[in-house]
């Protein structure tokens, strides 16, 4: 038997009245409460006989009422058909809760305004969770900043005594090394090697700490030019390894960053590629392509023909002091890739690696391109 209009109306009324997670009620054209459901009573803590007939502005804070915000909501809903907002609302007992509010204008067949439908949801728990997360993130950021400051101070304080030890060890080797017994020369060699490693570690630690600071103003950086500077700086390492470094970068490959940052990332990635390339015929390639996952931007790749990296180690190696299993002669400080990730991500970019054992490695980083304004592009020539 077909459902009558009256039956459907009764079913709808039953549905609305049974909902307890949402306050669903009607307002007359002037904003007075006309109906009240179980959800409204639970959330706002008014009984139907306490609230029906009263103006809905009683749900708003004194500040909102003073600036006539309830009236503004009805005006927008009348004009646009709908109004949505999140903000503080007030319960019957005076306590506040964070609410999502939707007001819909209700019009008759002739288009005349007959009132408003209002749906309110209590989002206090979600807001509190968001606030807790925000406070935790702020605390973590402060802790990271303090740790970076400590690392900078510690690295500065360690630089001088390490340099003193290394300097005297070299003087001892130069002036008296020949007169030392073999065992003494061996011990002195260990001292010099350890001092050199410590100096490199302290320098890298200082670089890592500084990479966490607020970035300098971004400009247009020519990646090809930056790569040439880096390769020139690495000329000794490249020559000692007998490596071939192939650069396939057009002058038009520009990213929005800071020149020193781009060169720092390229230096770490190219140096690593030269170090880990094939022992017999080391080859490293530097190239770039448009970033398909970004609205403007470039992916710069540094590829080597080395032994590759096990998939289990590929994410871990970007963490501070983490290294893939390598022989002692090629072992670094474990901070180079962490520095690269810090520099790239704070510019809104991405960094990663594609590799497989025996197939070489491709390290890449993606950065947005500059906006093309004359002031930005002019920085390329500086």
UniProtKB/TrEMBL annotation:
<dbReference type="GO" id="GO:0030295">
    <property type="term" value="F:protein kinase activator activity"/>
</dbReference>
<dbReference type="InterPro" id="IPR035965">
    <property type="entry name" value="PAS-like_dom_sf"/>
</dbReference>
<dbReference type="InterPro" id="IPR000014">
    <property type="entry name" value="PAS"/>
</dbReference>
<dbReference type="GO" id="GO:0005886">
    <property type="term" value="C:plasma membrane"/>
</dbReference>
<feature type="domain" description="PAC">
    <location>
        <begin position="83"/>
        <end position="135"/>
    </location>
</feature>
<feature type="domain" description="Histidine kinase">
    <location>
        <begin position="153"/>
        <end position="371"/>
    </location>
</feature>
<keyword id="KW-0472">Membrane</keyword>
<dbReference type="InterPro" id="IPR003661">
    <property type="entry name" value="HisK_dim/P_dom"/>
</dbReference>
<dbReference type="GO" id="GO:0007234">
    <property type="term" value="P:osmosensory signaling via phosphorelay pathway"/>
</dbReference>
<dbReference type="InterPro" id="IPR000700">
    <property type="entry name" value="PAS-assoc_C"/>
</dbReference>
<feature type="coiled-coil region">
    <location>
        <begin position="119"/>
        <end position="153"/>
    </location>
</feature>
<keyword id="KW-0418">Kinase</keyword>
<dbReference type="InterPro" id="IPR036097">
    <property type="entry name" value="HisK_dim/P_sf"/>
</dbReference>
<protein>
    <recommendedName>
        <fullName>Sensor-like histidine kinase SenX3</fullName>
        <ecNumber>2.7.13.3</ecNumber>
    </recommendedName>
</protein>
<keyword id="KW-0597">Phosphoprotein</keyword>
<dbReference type="Pfam" id="PF02518">
    <property type="entry name" value="HATPase_c"/>
</dbReference>
<dbReference type="InterPro" id="IPR050351">
    <property type="entry name" value="BphY/WalK/GraS-like"/>
</dbReference>
<keyword id="KW-0902">Two-component regulatory system</keyword>
<dbReference type="InterPro" id="IPR004358">
    <property type="entry name" value="Sig_transdc_His_kin-like_C"/>
</dbReference>
<dbReference type="InterPro" id="IPR036890">
    <property type="entry name" value="HATPase_C_sf"/>
</dbReference>
<dbReference type="Pfam" id="PF00512">
    <property type="entry name" value="HisKA"/>
</dbReference>
<dbReference type="GO" id="GO:0006355">
    <property type="term" value="P:regulation of DNA-templated transcription"/>
</dbReference>
<dbReference type="InterPro" id="IPR003594">
    <property type="entry name" value="HATPase_dom"/>
</dbReference>
<dbReference type="InterPro" id="IPR005467">
    <property type="entry name" value="His_kinase_dom"/>
</dbReference>
<dbReference type="GO" id="GO:0000156">
    <property type="term" value="F:phosphorelay response regulator activity"/>
</dbReference>
<dbReference type="Pfam" id="PF00989">
    <property type="entry name" value="PAS"/>
</dbReference>
<dbReference type="GO" id="GO:0000155">
    <property type="term" value="F:phosphorelay sensor kinase activity"/>
</dbReference>
<keyword id="KW-0175">Coiled coil</keyword>
<dbReference type="InterPro" id="IPR013767">
    <property type="entry name" value="PAS_fold"/>
</dbReference>
<feature type="domain" description="PAS">
    <location>
        <begin position="8"/>
        <end position="63"/>
    </location>
</feature>
<keyword id="KW-0808">Transferase</keyword>
């Amino acid at each position: 038997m077909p459902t009558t209009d009256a039956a459907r109306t009764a079913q709808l009324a039953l549905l609305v009245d049974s909902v307890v997670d949402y306050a669903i009620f009607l307002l007359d054209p002037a904003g007075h409460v006309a109906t009240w459901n179980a959800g409204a009573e639970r959330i706002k803590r008014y009984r139907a006989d306490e609230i029906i007939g009263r103006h809905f502005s009683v749900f708003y804070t004194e500040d909102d009422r003073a600036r006539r915000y309830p009236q503004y909501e009805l005006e927008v809903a009348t004009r646009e058909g709908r109004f949505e907002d999140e903000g503080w609302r007030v319960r019957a007992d005076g306590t506040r809760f964070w609410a999502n509010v939707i007001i819909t204008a209700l019009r008759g067949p002739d288009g005349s305004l007959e009132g408003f439908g209002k749906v309110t949801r209590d989002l206090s728990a979600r807001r509190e969770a968001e606030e807790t997360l925000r406070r935790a993130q702020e605390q973590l950021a402060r802790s990271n900043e303090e740790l970076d400051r400590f690392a900078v101070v510690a690295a500065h304080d360690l630089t001088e005594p390490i340099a003193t030890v290394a300097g005297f060890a070299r003087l001892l080797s130069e002036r008296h090394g020949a007169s030392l017994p073999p065992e003494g020369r061996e011990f002195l060699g260990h001292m010099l090697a350890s001092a050199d490693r410590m100096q490199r570690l302290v320098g890298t630690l200082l670089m890592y700490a500084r990479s966490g600071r607020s970035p300098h103003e971004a400009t247009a950086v020519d990646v090809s030019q930056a790569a040439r500077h880096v390769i020139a700086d690495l000329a000794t390492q490249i020559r000692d390894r007998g490596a071939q470094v192939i650069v396939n970068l057009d002058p038009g490959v520009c990213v929005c960053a800071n020149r020193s940052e781009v060169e720092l990332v390229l230096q770490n990635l190219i140096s690593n590629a030269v170090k880990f390339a094939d022992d017999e015929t080391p080859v490293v390639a530097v190239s770039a392509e448009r970033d398909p996952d970004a609205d403007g931007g470039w992916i710069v790749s540094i590829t080597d023909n080395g032994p590759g990296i096990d998939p289990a180690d590929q994410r871990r190696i970007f963490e501070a002091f983490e290294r893939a299993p390598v022989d002692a002669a090629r072992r670094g400080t474990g901070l180079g890739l962490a520095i690269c990730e810090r520099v790239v991500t704070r510019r809104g970019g991405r960094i990663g690696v594609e590799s497989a054992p025996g197939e070489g490695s491709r390290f890449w980083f993606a950065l947005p391109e500059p906006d093309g304004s004359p002031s930005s592009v002019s920085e390329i020539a500086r």
